[in-house]
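Re: the 230-residue chain
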Amino acid sequence: MDGRYRATKDKNKSRYYLLLSVVFVILMAKWGVPAMISAISGPEGRRAVQNEKDIIPPQQPIFSALPEATNSANLSIEGYTEAGAEVELLVNDTRAGIERADESGFFEFDATLAPGDNRVNATAKDDAGNTSQSPVAIVVFDNLPMELTVESPTNGNEYFGKSNQTIEVRGRVSKDEVEVLVNNSFALVEKGGSFRYKLLLAEGENTIKIIATDKAGNRDEAEMTVRFSL
């Protein structure tokens, strides 16, 4: 009886020591080894241990509002990502610059565009080497002159009587997707570039100013004077 009790006690003691050994190994693996590496390697070692734990990509770079089109080859590009991340700007899949985001995550580049469509995107990389990419934005560089042709009325025209008080301003523009203003009111621009606008004349001399502007900001304008009498 006494021998059986001693055997059971020894067996329980062995289990207890085994459990302590397992706990010790786990604690050493989790905290002891990194601490030893940190102590031996110094600051560089501590950074290495920290970097091994960081597998989360930085915040995806987000551009501030980019123009759909511009008539300038030089474009200022601003945006935000993770604070301190290294940001690489790509224009048409070619590196256009590398900057480090400031403490608020803000970054800024001056880019040069090629004529036509330009693919613009950015990659952010943190100190651990994790990366994230922005969506691709398309910016059109168009500096071709806008040409406005007024077909009616002609400068100096005179109109008489109530039935001729409303006239039609007509003409053409040389590009698609153009905005035409007649005395600061929008004219109807049809496919192919023709436009028209009905204008109510006032008694006496009337100045008509027409401005055509494309998406990139190129513009042309014309001005004329007509006279109306009841």
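Residues 2-41 form the longest helix (40 residues).
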